[in-house]
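note to self — DONT lose this again. spent like an hour looking for the file last time. sequence + predicted structure for the chain T wanted, 148 res
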Amino acid sequence: MLAKQEAKKTVHITSAYFVPDLQILQAMRDAAQRGVDVKRIVPGVTDSGLVFHAAQSLFSEMLASGIKIYQLQIAVLHAKTAVIDKVWATMGSTNIDTRSFRHNSEINVVVFSDEFGAAMENAFAEDLRLSQEVTREKMGTVSLQRPV
């Protein structure tokens, strides 16, 4: 969370089951309002409808605050990664939300490295290339969930 608060340029998150609590959501909004490029890749195909719809319930608020959301279109997304300013990166089994951090038996690794950060940023860019941007206009006209 502190990494999001200290971000200067980018916060890029990929997570299939990401329903942030108010503190994490606020850190993302604050970063976006500071001019940080905050992007989140979510599944376009899901294996958990309940979590998918819970996450979607926050889309309007996130988009309004400047957070960009993209849906991966090629497969069920299971990645749980974040890269900040191309130097701080995390990946593991944690869904990058407070519930996972506090209540689940999960583990992530955090790496501070220009080289590793660049590799993670490249992986994020590839997933972004295979994703479709979610906009407020699209939310009102098409279903955001494709069947598995």
